[in-house]
């Protein structure tokens, strides 16, 4: 059993709606130390376009900065899934995504994405919907607007 693992449902096949599974690495190891090492090497290597890691304890500044530098060196996108209330000062951006239910459409793809930390830009919130046909996100105005 992995250390406090929460998202065993993460599956590259499910992410295929968004990108090719061969371009994704999900770092799932026995503990956070090993996951950080795998994620850092994959980010630095640049052979995959997207690296996902879920943490089980707060990242210290050194760990977060190492991941950030590795992503920059490999020109790779890294996504760190962080439990509510945990964070990393090294994060370039910090997002919170929550589902929004549209009773008119019975649509579970509507979400609210909020950026609450951005070292190089603005912060704000958007309602978005994934469009499978165009393989793009669409910004959705709030109800009644």
Summarize the model shown:
The chain has about 140 residues and is α/β, with parallel strands linked by helices. The chain has 2 helices and 7 strands; from the N terminus they run βαβαβββββ. The strands form 2 sheets. It has a 4-stranded antiparallel beta sheet with strand order 4-5-6-7, with no helix packed on it. The chain has a 3-stranded parallel beta sheet with strand order 1-2-3, covered by helices on one side.
Structure description:
The chain has helices at 32-45, 61-74; strands at residues 24-27, 50-54, 77-81, 93-99, 110-118, 124-131, 136-139. By secondary structure, it is of the alpha/beta class. The strands form 2 sheets. It has a 4-stranded antiparallel β-sheet with strand order 4-5-6-7, with no helix packed on it. Strands 1-2-3 form a 3-stranded parallel β-sheet, with helices on one face. A hairpin with a 4-residue loop joins strand 6 and strand 7 (136-139). The longest helix is centred in the first third of the chain and has 14 residues, at 32-45.
């Amino acid at each position: 059993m992995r250390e406090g693992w929460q998202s065993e449902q993460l599956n590259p096949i499910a992410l295929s709606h968004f990108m090719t599974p061969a371009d994704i690495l999900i770092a799932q190891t026995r503990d956070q130390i090993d996951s950080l090492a795998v994620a850092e090497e994959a980010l630095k290597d640049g052979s995959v376009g997207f690296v996902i890691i879920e943490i089980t304890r707060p990242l210290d500044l050194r760990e977060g900065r190492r991941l950030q530098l590795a992503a920059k060196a490999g020109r790779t996108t890294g996504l760190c899934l962080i439990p509510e209330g945990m964070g990393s000062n090294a994060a370039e951006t910090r997002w919170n995504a929550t589902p929004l239910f549209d009773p008119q459409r019975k649509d579970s793809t509507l979400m609210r994405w909020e950026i609450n930390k951005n070292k190089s830009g603005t912060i704000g919130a958007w309602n978005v919907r994934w469009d499978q046909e165009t393989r793009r996100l669409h910004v959705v105005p709030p109800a009644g607007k």
